[in-house]
Design brief:
Blueprint (H helix, E strand, L loop, with lengths): L10 E4 L3 E9 L2 E7 L9 H27 L1
Antiparallel strand pairs: 1-2, 2-3
């Protein structure tokens, strides 16, 4: 993991097309802005993990349905 220090209104650039800017710092909270192409999904980690779990559950459920149909 790369750890960088940034001040308010300073940015980092990833792969020349994603820019992350520190918008505000209040106490232990940091507000960031992310500019990325629409083709790049950007999620909070907890939302990303929920999506992964939902996809996993759906694939298992779909797999079980396919197996039941195969055995009929």
């Amino acid at each position: 993991m790369l750890a960088l220090s940034r001040k308010k209104n300073e940015s980092i650039v990833i792969n020349s097309d994603i820019e992350i800017t520190v918008l505000d710092i209040r106490g232990d909270q940091v507000k960031i802005g992310i500019a990325a192409p629409k083709s790049v999904p950007v999620y909070r980690k907890e939302v990303y993990l929920q999506i992964q779990e939902a996809n996993k559950a759906a694939s298992v459920s779909e797999g079980m349905e396919s197996l039941k149909n195969l055995l009929k």
